[in-house]
Design brief:
- This protein has five helices and no strands.
- The protein has about 90 residues and is mainly α.
- It has one domain.
- α2 crosses α3 and α3 packs antiparallel against α4.
- It comes from Salmonella diarizonae.
Length: about 90
Amino acid sequence: MFNITNTQSAVRNQSISNEELKEVLPEDEIWSKISIFFASEYQIEVQSCIAYLCHPPETASPEEIKSKFECLRTVAFPAYADNIQCS
């Protein structure tokens, strides 16, 4: 016997499980936490720097990494610039 109620319930649970499995990209998570540090006019530039820092090319030098942090510090609101550091 086919029970429609059980099938709908299973489909709904599967849908919820699939949503839980969606991975949040590290750059999206970081952006959501620090977006207030920057004026909206710098959003694209900042997101590009964050993406680079989260996924640097294998050939990235320490100087290139540091320059991305410096770029972020430069375009941040002055009150937040000291919160951006390269260790």
